[in-house]
Amino acid sequence: MERLLEIRDGLLRGVGRLPSEHRAVEGAEGRVLAEAALARRAAPPYACSAMDGYAVRAVEAAAGGNLPVGQRVFAGDHPRPLGPGQAARIFTGGELPEGANAVIQEELAEERDGRVAFRRAVREGENVRHAGEDVLAGGLALPAGATLGPRQLALLAAVGVEAVEVVRRPRVVILSTGDEVVGGRTPDSNGVALAGLCRAAGAEVERIAAPDRLEAVAAAIEAAAARADLVLTIGGVSVGERDLVPAALRALGADTLVHGVPMKPGKPFLFAVLDGARVAGLPGSPSACLVAFEVFARPVLLTLAGAARPLRATLRLRLAEPVAGRPGRARLIWAALDEDGRARPLGRDAAQIRGPALADLLVLVPASAGDLGEGAEVGTWLLDGR
Amino acid sequence: MERLLEIRDGLLRGVGRLPSEHRAVEGAEGRVLAEAALARRAAPPYACSAMDGYAVRAVEAAAGGNLPVGQRVFAGDHPRPLGPGQAARIFTGGELPEGANAVIQEELAEERDGRVAFRRAVREGENVRHAGEDVLAGGLALPAGATLGPRQLALLAAVGVEAVEVVRRPRVVILSTGDEVVGGRTPDSNGVALAGLCRAAGAEVERIAAPDRLEAVAAAIEAAAARADLVLTIGGVSVGERDLVPAALRALGADTLVHGVPMKPGKPFLFAVLDGARVAGLPGSPSACLVAFEVFARPVLLTLAGAARPLRATLRLRLAEPVAGRPGRARLIWAALDEDGRARPLGRDAAQIRGPALADLLVLVPASAGDLGEGAEVGTWLLDGR
Questions:
Q1: How many domains is chain A built from?
Q2: What's the rounded Cα separation, in Å, for the pair B40 and B156?
Q3: B77 and A179: CB-CB below 8 Å?
Q4: CATH code, domain carrying A83
Q5: Residue A386: its chain B contacts at CB < 8 A?
Q6: Which of A40, A105, B270, B306 has its CA 20 to 30 A from that of B158?
């Protein structure tokens, strides 16, 4: 396995999910289930018709059989039991009358003068949706770790779940470092991106900033760690003399698990634990910052949030253009998904700022890959918004 | 091209984007640009170093050259011009001093007693990021049709864009029909799903309901069309006697462009225009409802919203299990993306409600495909939330 991803997986093994809390389903959009949600009612709630047609006893409705139509059953109706030798007109979703055990679709039936004839026989159970066929009452609706998006909330509504145990939302403090940011000479665009990305991943976000002084950076990290589950620092994480984040963490007695990873961009990435909070040190160059977020910080955040699958799905796509390898380091490349479903790399530079904004994908070129030609297959992560 | 997608594309050709409005970037998250956003400042804003190292005049810094270090330049500093025969210590992102035209990385330099020696010569421009290298002042930051997610907002911040022309948010009214929904016998799970999906696509959403009476359905559609850009009706769209949506649209004099499409599930889908509003009639079975939304209604909504790419990206993946074709109709199948990057179909029934909630993908089996074996390649749409 790619060394970079082994490092990531090693960090994730040390991260657990946050405590849970009880919440009404209404208002739980975007939250992650801490426990499996069990159906309070079956779906479908009663045996019903899968077709517009006629509900019958299968044995009574041989081909050509001619039965009186005793009632009409629409979705939502409460039907009467089916009398012996009778049929019931029934529409999709209509509850199957007691006694009926099959539905003959209307295309195979002819109704005239209150009686219906069938062009062929029907098997027991045909065109019937049984109670609980999708979900049994008390059965599994959604597993722990599921994120409650619109389709998941709809399922919970359908099976009568009104409250769920969800994971507490992670608290993230984003600490932008650097005189150029504090002084306003450089807009804090990384802070804007990270705040939105963390919120999209379900976090509560606070943004702070510190100038290039060791005590200021240390004080900011300490304060952030005291109230955050995850602190994201931006800038000052390399080995230069103004790279104060590593020094501040040392001064605070933090446990630095990783400093420097075999990837480009984003090599200086740092990960530490301080007073139970995780601290992810992201580089200040926009592309490197967002690459390090995608590779490390977002999976950590989603693991804290309890998501069953904290990693983006990996898709194997072909490159639309050659890319140069970087022996010994994995390369992460922002790319667009072109019309032919291929990955077209965008831009070339760690500090490149349009790449992340135009990208559909992040391409991972393995450390061992060397140069890759057009058409080479690569692992890619599809980003949100496509 | 697949007939189903031809029908979709034909409908989309009749849909234009909504009017635009001027908005501060702050607060424009999720909106779509109606016009290209042009950079108010260059990125990078000035020539700067791509490395930690020494800024020099390339001609003065031959290999072994030994120059006095006149200043230290960090990101955010305003450097003094570079004196003749001098070097400046410079850190990543630091502004290049006037007169310097290259940076020698620190690994190739040795500084001692205020002077620096270099192990090799440097080419003009080496390790320098030029002003406007990513984006020129006045140049294109983001094109019209871009959706403003976190990475896009970061780019706008980086290039000084504070206000943008965005498309007005589409107004959607979701009309749930049927006595079983109005009477509360069946939870309106489709309404829950569609409301969330429409909001995620950028719309303002209102939900209403109407019982199974023609006048009630017609009055609800008319009222909805008067205040919506897109009306989504749920249920009652087939050809049965309680399928009142088509009849109500006829009674209202709507222009029905499509009723019935070659797909399973979702065959009864209807699309009409009434008083300038679009009306998409979705089936009531949960799976069919959400398939019809994905195939037709979501692209219509994103076209109204001005998105450059209203369609989900199509990925070609292999099937993890065989699927039965349905000659003459495209099949849409909810599927999970498995560990090997293959599409694993979920469930089998149009009314199946767990499928949409557990799916990562929607698989399109072409009408012409016949049965497909394990490993067959199919077009898929990756859904949100993966």
A1: 4
A2: 9
A3: yes
A4: 2.170.190.11
A5: 309, 312-313, 382
A6: B306
Tokens representing residue B354 in the block: 């767990």
As separate numbers, helices (DSSP H) first and strands (DSSP E) second, chain A gives 9, 24
* Tens-place pLDDT, residues A308-335: 999 998 889 999 999 988 889 999 999 9
ipTM metric: 0.92
Q: Is there a single domain that holds both residue B323 and residue B212?
A: no
DSSP secondary structure string for all residues of A148-188? --HHHHHHHHHTT--EEEEEPPPEEEEEEE-HHHHTTSS--
Residue B228 domain-assigned?
A: yes
Query: In terms of domains, do A179 and A293 share one?
Result: yes
For residue A58, the Cα-to-chain-centroid distance in whole angstroms is: 45
B positions 190-229 inside 8 Å of A (CB): 190, 192-197, 199-200, 212
Residues B101 and B27 both lie in one domain: no
CA–CA separation, B251 vs B254, rounded Å?
A: 8
Q: Residue A245 carries which DSSP code?
A: H
**Residues A254-277: pLDDT tens digits?**
999 999 999 999 999 999 999 999
In this model, does residue B351 exceed pLDDT 80?
A: no
Handedness of CA B356, B358, B362, B367 (dihedral sign): negative
Looking at the fold, whether B163 and B173 belong to one and the same domain comes out as no
Are B173 and B158 part of one and the same domain?
A: no
Q: What angle do CA B92, B96, B97 make, to 5 degrees?
A: 135
Average pLDDT in chain B: 93
Residues A264, A204 within the same domain: yes
| Nearest residue to B64 via CA among B7, B12, B116 | B116
Q: What is the CATH number of the domain that holds B145?
A: 3.90.105.10
In terms of residue numbers, what domain contains B34?
20-43+134-167
The CA angle B112-B114-B118, to the nearest 5 degrees, is 55
Question: How far apart are alpha carbons B273 and B231 in whole angstroms?
Answer: 10
DSSP state of B249: H
Residues in chain A: 386
Question: Which B residues 324-383 touch A at CB under 8 Å?
Answer: 337, 341, 347, 349-354, 356-360, 382
Chain B residues inside the 8 Å CB shell of A142: 357-358
Residue B108 lies in a domain: yes
